[in-house]
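Hi L.,

As promised, UPF0309 protein SSFG_04062:
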Amino acid sequence: MSDRTPADRFLDAAIDLLQRVRDEEADSLAAAGTLLADTVADGGRLFAFGAGHSSLAAQDLVYRAGGLALMNLLAVPGVVGVDVMPATLGSALERVDGLAGAVLDSSPVRAGDALVIVSLSGRNALPVEMAMNARALGARVIGVTSVAYADRTTSRHSSGTFLKDHCDLVLDSKIEVGDAELTHDDVPAPFAPASTVVTTALLQAVVATAAATLADRGIEPPLLRSGNVDGGHEWNNRVLEQYGDRIFYRR
């Protein structure tokens, strides 16, 4: 019998996925970081969206120590987390046609901006229409998804398409359909999801690329510092003031 614990097995699975993302998505990561850097340099704004647990990776980009101050959360009421009651309502709202258009119409997203859309399956109406409508507005779209879902599931959008079909760039998280890395002889369902770990790391790699790309061009990247280090608040106040017209989470 193997002496590897479930924790060992899960961490090994997550490490393997991170290594695959590093090796197989290198060109896409570089392109996504460059797209964000181009947007910042050209005066555009940055937005991130995710529904359900995919929203966790999107939220991790916003008002984040070490992150880009210009990244704003594009929130859809009822689908940003599991705080909505009942929690199943969020899943239902992801399948509602037309919701993405209504959200974008009332949002500050405009031509020249960049929108990161996180959806593990990429099959529901909300992320598909979010990408379609954002591009129609003239925004650039980076989709973060598991491409495997397009091969092994069916779309829930009337077009029959997936998020990956409506993006300027796609980052493949490599997560298997079902998002569960472990099995056990006495457990009837697979368990231990890794999508949040992998997607969050993938997006932070994009931000790191964007920051370094801006610096290489002689542009100081608009980064935030931790408020828990000396001088952090003063630094952040300067950055937030400098880029206040491109930051919406303060309003």
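The first helix runs from residue 6 to 24.

Thanks again for sending the construct details.

K.
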